[in-house]
Amino acid sequence: MSKQGGGSDVVFDLDASAFSSDEFRIYQFKVKRCPRARPHDWTQCPFAHPGEKAKRRCPKRYRYSGTACPEFRRNGCCRRQDACPFAHGVFECWLHPSRYRTQMCTDGVGCKRRVCFFAHAEPELRWVVH
Description:
Layout: H1 17-20, H2 22-27, H3 70-75, H4 89-94
């Protein structure tokens, strides 16, 4: 088995209401540590795993914006690590409270992404108050 699990068994249903709510996606998706001990496919799991690139900081615990970190974009890492005021990676950028579902998905209702950062219908749009 690879570091990323490689198992073919479905671990979690990412479309289930427990994992698809805005609250879960913004504050827990790839933030909360995975409770599963057995190797499994990390791409099918909403939780964080040691060494996973999609792992992110909790926006409630760490003060960072939804703007991409220039150093992280250039180098794939940042000297400031968790103290950085910018988002590290795609998941931190687009699952940030200031950005998640604030724009319509260009694929609309035909979107095939397992986890999409964008709204697929007007009622899904989030309005962020600054």
